[in-house]
Description:
Helices cover 35% and strands 15% of the residues. The chain has helices at 2-8, 12-31, 79-84, 110-119, 136-151, 172-181, 255-270, 283-286, 289-304, 313-321, 326-329; strands at 64-72, 100-104, 122-127, 162-163, 186-187, 191-192, 205-207, 225-230, 233-234, 236-238, 241-243, 277-281, 308-310. Strands 1, 2, 3, 12 and 13 form a 5-stranded parallel beta sheet that branches. A 4-stranded mixed beta sheet has the order 4-5-8-7. A two-stranded parallel sheet has the order 6-9.
Amino acid sequence: MDSLRTKMKMPHYTTILCSMLLLASGVASRSAQCVPGVNCKLPNCRCSNDDSIPGGIPAKYTPQIILVTFENAVNEGNVGPYLDLFSGLKNPNGCPALGTFYVQEKWTDMGVVKRLFDMGHEIGVNSIDGTLPHTATEWLGNITEVRRAITQVAVPEKNILGVRAPELSPGGLAEFWAISVDHLLYDASCATGSLAHVDSLLWPYTYDFIPGVHCDIGESLDGTFPGLWQVLIADLEFKGQRCASPAACTNVVSQNDAFEIFYNSFINHYHGKRSPFMMVINPEWVTVPNKKEGTIQFLKYVTSLNDVWIVTVSQALDWVRYPVPSWRAKSGYAPWGCAH
Ligand SMILES: *[C@@H]1O[C@H](CO)[C@@H](O)[C@H](O)[C@H]1NC(C)=O
């Protein structure tokens, strides 16, 4: 604990709280192995080493989830291109395709946030001004403040569930401690290159047990937080380059390239175990016409398949926790019903 305390530079009371949390949750699980279906069961626990599809559903009957995610500020200046991506797209049950916006407070127009929420998109937390928190106190301060700002514009606190760290750089223990104190549900910042192949792609898992997965950037979590989820970002691959967000793959030039960088990774999910396919869209990507058009072409293509769903990250977790086969998802599956 001592090295942890120094590293995280926490004031005394948070240190004590944190230690208690870790002790309460960590002792048993630190030594125990997570055994799917034995000491860890849905809806509130899933092992990181579980390579099965939730509910034991066969791949061909599993809805393929696509997560279109955004980070940083949203305002009148960028929301247009963001929303163009969803224009006219419908899921197999006839409800509109939805995305998730992890909001940075600075430069964000909260009126736009409310509009996005009212359309059914999920609103999550990014940061106050785009700088990466380091200590547990800074993580908690940032998450709490951004959530406060969002809830002021009539997004209910219970609907704010997820965090995306600035620069896709998760904060490990410090971040998850803040997530648990603020009663959020998940992190969506952990990028993995090693788990980006058709046989290694993982479904979201909980931190009831450690170890979880090693994140390529930032800090991996080395502590247990029962019931809190990790929704992974599998690297994209294009002509020899790898990137967590497509804007970082510099060899994407044409509209066709932009279509292909998504398509090539998507089929690893779709033809494999159908784990959710996470797309990380940022302004540098969507403001380039070729890239935006290639993205729209890809999203139109996938919605022409009748078992692909573009839903929010928390809707994806709803499915993981309460899985149903594709045919059932299409009619009367409440978590995927049309917005509010
Ligand atoms: C948010 O994080 C930044 C970056 O580390 C830090 O400087 C700032 O103090 C934090 N804000 C709060 C309210 O904790």
